[in-house]
Amino acid sequence: MATFVLVHGAWHGGWCWAPLERALRGRGHETSAPTLTGLGERSHLATPQVTPDTHVLDITSHIAWQGLEDVILVGHSYGGVIITGVAGRMPERVRALVYLDAIVPEESGVSAVAAHNPERTATLRAQLANGDFMVAPDRFDSWTDDPDHMAWLRENCTPHPIRCLTEGVTLTGREAEVTHRHFILATRNRPSLFWEEYERVKGRAGWQVQEMATKHDVMVEAPETLAARLDAIADSPV
Q1: How far apart are alpha carbons 35 and 203 in whole angstroms?
Q2: Could you give the angle at the alpha carbon of 172 between the alpha carbons of 168 and 173, nearest 5°?
Q3: What residues contact residue 61 under an 8 Å CB cut-off, 6+ apart?
Q4: Cβ contacts of residue 199 below 8 Å, gap of 6+?
Q5: What domain count does the chain have?
Q6: Are strands 160-161 and 134-135 parallel, antiparallel or unpaired?
Q7: What's the predicted TM-score (pTM) here?
Q8: Residue 76's beta-bridge partner residues?
Q9: Quick one: pLDDT at residue 24?
Q10: Tens-place pLDDT, residues 12-46
């Protein structure tokens, strides 16, 4: 049995992990999927001050107050930024990091999203300067092409704090202490920033990589298959 903490990406919430949580619990694992500040059922807490470091604090506090140890952190998309920041603050509690079609930050305070798409970032910064600190979801076609899944995502996704996309997470360097790392690429989500991340880490020492033939929201499109992959990761030696 393993303990999984599932960290969602931009515009999503803990709700997006429900099918995967059922599948993992059916395999005997413990799971939790906290929603980050300003999103989902916590959307009423959104302020202009929310940054990636706010979301790191969400997860470190969750792990600490739940008394979780030997955690496998799974970060989807933007969630990869957050699990890296968490590993840098409490590596002694983290067994492994799983980047699910996700960003892998390597430079403190630098946003991979901003570096990848400077034009959109300029638009977001102008929006922020005008007092609008949230950005609405707009990438549904890259997340799924299943009509039922898309309807569910459209119903539940909420605007995301802009500074979380224009600013990077603070890295302490201690994230390097977590050496058990995995990247799962959604191969039907192409082209994407996540393909670039996958190519960058593939072949590095300490990394295991694999592919799944889904669009970006792997946990929505193929929860049972993903649960089997995570189950194998839980059984693999550290």
Answers
A1: 32
A2: 110
A3: none
A4: none
A5: 1
A6: antiparallel
A7: 0.97
A8: 100
A9: 98
A10: 999 999 999 999 999 999 999 999 999 999 999 99
Nearest in space to 30 (alpha carbons), one of 6, 9, 14: 6
Cα separation, 7 vs 86, whole angstroms: 11
Q: Exactly one of 32, 43, 61, 77 is catalytic; which is it?
A: 77
CATH number of residue 108's parent domain: 3.40.50.1820
3-state class (DSSP) for residue 120: helix
Residue 45 structural domain: 3-235
**Residue range 68-126, pLDDT digits in tens:** 999 999 999 999 999 999 999 999 999 999 999 999 999 999 998 888 888 888 999 99
Instruction: Report H helices in 9-132.
Output: 18-26, 52-66, 79-89, 112-116, 118-129
The rounded distance, in Å, linking the Cα atoms of 133 and 96 is 33
77 is catalytic: yes
Question: What is the spatial distance between Cα 12 and Cα 177, in angstroms, rounded to a whole number?
Answer: 29
